[in-house]
Amino acid sequence: MAVIEALETVYLEADAASVTIDSINQGYETLIVHASQRSTNVSGGVAFEIECNGTTTEHHSAYTMVGANSSELAQENLILNFWKIYDGIHGTSALTPEYATMRLIIPDYAQADSNKSMNIMLGDALTKATDYRVTWGGGNYDQTSHPALTQLKFRSATGNLTRGSEYTLFGVKNS
Amino acid sequence: MTQTINTATPDYIVDGTLTDGEAWVPLITTVVSGTSTSNVQMQSSTGANDWSQYMDLVLISSARSLTTDGVVNLRFNNDTGSNYVGQILQGNGTDDSAYFQSLTNADIAVIPKSTATADFFGSFVCTMFDINAGKYTSLQSLRANNMNAAGSPNIIAMTTFCWKNQAAVTEIDVFIASGTAAFAANSRFDLFGVLPRMVTV
Fold first, then answer.
1. How far is B45 from chain A (nearest CA, A)?
2. CATH number 2.60.120 is the correct assignment for the domain at A4-172
3. Which of A26, B8, B55, B107 allows an S-S link to A110, with CB 3.0 to 4.6 Å?
4. Where are the domains of chain B?
5. Are A6 and A168 in contact (CB under 8 A)?
């Protein structure tokens, strides 16, 4: 088995409300997601949401640091049913060929003895004056039963994910 | 400068069929020797080094400057126009700052200058996303410079840049801001191609 293996790539051929990667292979230690994404919302920055295991209850929290033009921001989004990243994706106010970027890392996702944590970096809206964003964050999926992570869902808080958005899930094997 | 380019037939293609394999494929390794390497040029070619087969590229580097200029820039496809826009958030141990840039290249790192303590090298990891899709190519770069030394900025930063050009990426040039400053010996640049896995669902 490879050390880093691409498990699944989703490339949107049409706008979609969300992208779900499910039945995640449990044979690795760490998950990485690379994404190139854009929202159909008529705006610059839009909140970006990541949901674990299709949960409808409030088990997700996230903290972020943001460089926004000349401002430095620190934000939190606690106890939601998804990880919420303010302005983590951009809408139609950025130039059409620009897609936002995301790199998500979730270590030890397959074990059942602790909550799952994540590390995320995003960049967006660089062609939309005053909405420029670079974001780094961390989060926790806090569920008492500590289920293995088997599904990830990505969506824009408002609007759809634009045609051409792309998500690739990688599994990283330790030994 | 020593440059090793992986033009071997990709081992993830067997009898014309894609097989499971490493998602990160080593493409080009560059190790600086001497005192005259002011530009590290990486180009798509053949075999594994044909970049048209990859979704993303990742560049990992440890580097140092031989001059008092330590800003590392990246340029795609020799495009010297004002087509690079980016946002940076950085900290220096005391202060934090954020700023937007519109440049003729992407500003992806700061490395120790000649005035820094000897043998201190900076590092950066630069990921370029979806380079063959007809989108503007965007990148993220995480950088760390110097640390615990005088004469050069101690900076960590996260950076994102967008190249306002829809061409597929076929060449990357990495150079110190002045364009004439040289990288120190043993600076190294490792370029990887990242394969997708298209799944029918």
1. 23
2. yes
3. A26
4. 2-13+23-194
5. yes
